[in-house]
Fold each of these.
Amino acid sequence: QKEVEQDPGPLSVPEGAIVSLNCTYSNSAFQYFMWYRQYSRKGPELLMYTYSSGNKEDGRFTAQVDKSSKYISLFIRDSQPSDSATYLCAMSGTGGFKTIFGAGTRLFVKA
Amino acid sequence: GAGVSQTPSNKVTEKGKYVELRCDPISGHTALYWYRQSLGQGPEFLIYFQGTGAADDSGLPNDRFFAVRPEGSVSTLKIQRTERGDSAVYLCASRDAAGGRRTGELFFGEGSRLTVL
């Protein structure tokens, strides 16, 4: 079993839809939870960053962490074609921040 | 530039050859990470450096893979006797870990795409 599980999709939605992406994990030592966005042939870029459990909102994006269930989510409101990319969940423990990534979910937002 | 720079961007080699991939991190970032990303997969951790030393090399798949960071800045990932299964994008990332900063954000380069024929 992988430490981080993420459905690779693809996920196709119409413009303006609410998108829900999620990951599960098995390592209870993870304390930092992140979502990275990766466009084709580019490196991942940090989108959202959360420490421990709770919610965090940034514009159209909301990240949720439920440590009791070992489950994290990313919601995208009013999705746009420019949101089309691969979304990677990532997590790390304390210390050196060895970051473990999920497989990534490919998202397509149709105009 | 101000970002993480990786060279070469593309490398095609033959099975059995030796390859070096270079990473130039963001100036001042003390932590440096190497990941490998196969098609349709997320980045797979290989090794990370804090300063000049390898703090965690548990992700290196076997002894054909080796990485160095002799002066605590530029890093080189070295692959001996390449195999077709080594074909992937090799990503480098750096992090600002100086002064006890407690942030886990990794800044990635665009990767080196390795193809082993």
Amino acid sequence: AQKVTQAQTEISVVEKEDVTLDCVYETRDTTYYLFWYKQPPSGELVFLIRRNSFDEQNEISGRYSWNFQKSTSSFNFTITASQVVDSAVYFCALSEAYYGGATNKLIFGTGTLLAVQP
Amino acid sequence: DAGITQSPRHKVTETGTPVTLRCHQTENHRYMYWYRQDPGHGLRLIHYSYGVKDTDKGEVSDGYSVSRSKTEDFLLTLESATSSQTSVYFCAISQGQGGEETQYFGPGTRLLVL
């Protein structure tokens, strides 16, 4: 069965610190997709990144970077030089490949609340 | 902005009453989804649709029904609301194709069942 675990319920850092949010997943499929979403205090869900299982390259986007390691079934998210605006709940999600007209249902982790103090 | 709106944005209702939430999209996406968000559970899929009149159950479908009579609207109905259905409900669409799909979410509906 598919499962996503975000063991860190809450993290508090001081502005300018680096912080890593952990995500561990379980799946029996060899082809799957991993996602990160951000939910700021205003409540909307903002898509951050999608990663395919056959692409293990790390990705960097400004202060954000993602480390995908199939060997440990992890897809961790690092924010460098955190800012108060990074305060949010961050969700990791997994979907398996689909065939024949089915659809990509997302399985979410329980989220990590990141609080960045000024 | 994936052009998704949800209505109402907030609702208070009483146990036993039927409630319908509406998701409206303007970009002709084929796939639409309803999730609920609860503390300690993240988001969980209730129902989804892969076309007009084509729907299927998700992980937590008991007590919910859906309908999709036109591409742009996906309705979620709580047949007889219970306090356990107090939650934040998110609608989503899937954009992309060929394994490159990404789900984008509406602003959410906060539902309180008293």
Amino acid sequence: GENVEQHPSTLSVQEGDSAVIKCTYSDSASNYFPWYKQELGKRPQLIIDIRSNVGEKKDQRIAVTLNKTAKHFSLHITETQPEDSAVYFCAPPNKLVFGAGTILRVKS
Amino acid sequence: SAVISQKPSRDICQRGTSLTIQCQVDSQVTMMFWYRQQPGQSLTLIATANQGSEATYESGFVIDKFPISRPNLTFSTLTVSNMSPEDSSIYLCSVLEGGGYTFGSGTRLTVV
């Protein structure tokens, strides 16, 4: 089955700093790479995704980059704000599994 | 995107009893997925529910413990049977849209 590793497991940053979370996958045939955000007590929500024909996608303060050669994709959050505090999950492409999650804490 | 109504939102149940969770989608979908999220953990797929056929269960999950119904393309139920405290968890239904998941609001189950 698909092997996925998500790092780091926890991440604390100061408000205004950047945060980067990385997900490594094993299936080279993958073509869709999503990231989910789960706030405390709420359902996971898709926040950004990328397809394999592009290397980067941005949506305001968040971006996803893809390195197909190295088989990893990363979530980048710039100018972090307290409301970015949540658990973030990657979901390996084409598979019904999720990464272990990263707890992001933004300290104000 | 699809809107999924899931109920109940939470319940406290006695061990040995069963609870049925319902999910209603506002559009027709081929597959619905049931996930479990234990406290502080990631999401684990329980099974995939297809309309008109038996659900497909993931390793570690069996039909006798988690029977699923899928009577039409907009509705599914998951039953947690003969519950024990280890079944205390959040259960989420979901659908795939354009590659990404949309989730129901979840059912927080506590077994005492």
